[in-house]
Specification:
2 strands; transmembrane helix; binds zinc ion; 326 residues; mainly alpha; 12 helices
């Protein structure tokens, strides 16, 4: 009885690379694949089958999702007042974290339903990450820029916001298209899109530290949080491009410890440090020239366009129909 149950589980959740179509392959991962065209219920079930190579990815970002909800509650239950407009960039930053963790959990759970579902799931995942990078950029700009700069770029949020919006929308578009073309460099494209957003988001803080001439702007007490965030996110990017360790030890880290698993953990940590950094900077005192309401329409536009791109970039594939007929 036990043996037949295990056989059924293995035939659904623990296939070898050569047993499934190439569209469902992950680089250097040999076994633990789910059978393509699984039902919704079986996809959910696979999250707790630890011989499956997606379980860790599903559970790690599901725990991140719960973690960031807890952070949101802990920030706004007693410590901060959500009706105060000065806390809105921070609130949107945490909502961005919750959104991308949820979307990543969904994408990793449902990506074996079909080739089309696999593409669409990850399109939405990319859109959610791009929306998050836009939201975290807003928080960094409003809380960590120089308060007394004469430069128009730092006095007026318009220029920074337009740049952040453009990067966010282009990231979604390029990442979605990288699933259909540019196959040999897709991981570099995806990583570099988010590195560009990250660098753009750091500009206000770096500039402030370079030109500071008053105690408020010269306050570097949050620098260690910013560096911790940069280092962990850099580590995540390097793993995503190099595919370490599975590239060098094929078959050893299929179900636990592969680069994507480690990347999920590092991304959650990096985003947590980034959140703590912007909260720390917010408490520095930012009352001067604070007009976040004027940026809200661009935030809504960025969210709308990113989701629209994920919806309209084609995901259908003739191979889906052929495989189903087999
Ligand atoms: Zn992932």
């Amino acid at each position: 009885m036990e043996t037949s149950k295990k056989k059924t589980a293995d035939s659904k959740f623990n296939l070898r690379r050569e047993e499934i179509p190439p569209e469902f392959h992950d680089p250097f991962i040999i076994r633990g694949y789910r059978r393509p065209y699984l039902s919704f219920k079986d996809c959910l079930k696979s999250s707790v089958v630890f011989s499956c190579n997606e379980s860790f990815n599903i559970l790690s970002h599901f725990f991140s999702f719960l973690f960031f909800i807890t952070i949101f509650i802990s920030y706004f239950k007693t410590e901060l007042d959500i009706t105060d407009v000065k806390t809105w960039p921070l609130a949107l930053n945490v909502i961005g974290n919750i959104g991308f963790s949820f979307m990543s959990t969904t994408a990793h759970t449902l990506n074996s339903m079909s080739i089309e579902a696999r593409h669409k799931c990850f399109y939405l995942d990319y859109a959610a990450i791009s929306i998050y990078t836009y939201c975290s950029g807003q928080a960094t700009f409003y809380y960590s820029r120089a308060l007394f700069s004469e430069k128009e770029f730092f006095k007026n949020s318009y220029y920074f916001n337009i740049g952040a919006m453009f990067i966010s929308i282009m990231s979604t578009l390029l990442n979605c298209l990288s699933r259909r073309k540019w196959h040999s460099s897709k991981y570099v494209i995806r990583t570099m899109a988010y590195v560009t957003a990250y660098v753009w988001n750091c500009v206000p803080y770096i500039y402030r530290l370079m030109i500071c001439n008053n105690p408020l702007d010269c306050n570097k007490s949050g620098l260690y949080l910013s560096l911790l965030s940069a280092l962990t996110l850099l580590g995540a990017g390097v793993l995503n491009i190099t595919k370490f360790p599975e590239r060098f030890y094929p078959g050893k880290f299929d179900c636990c410890g592969q680069s994507h698993n480690l990347m999920h953990v590092l991304v959650t940590l990096g985003c947590f440090f980034q959140l703590e950094f912007v909260k720390h900077e917010m408490l520095r005192g930012i009352s001067q020239g604070f007009n976040y309401e004027s940026s809200l329409h661009l935030t809504i536009f960025t969210v709308f366009v990113s989701l629209l791109i994920a919806a309209v970039v084609p995901a259908n594939d003739d191979k889906d129909i052929n495989y189903k007929k087999k």
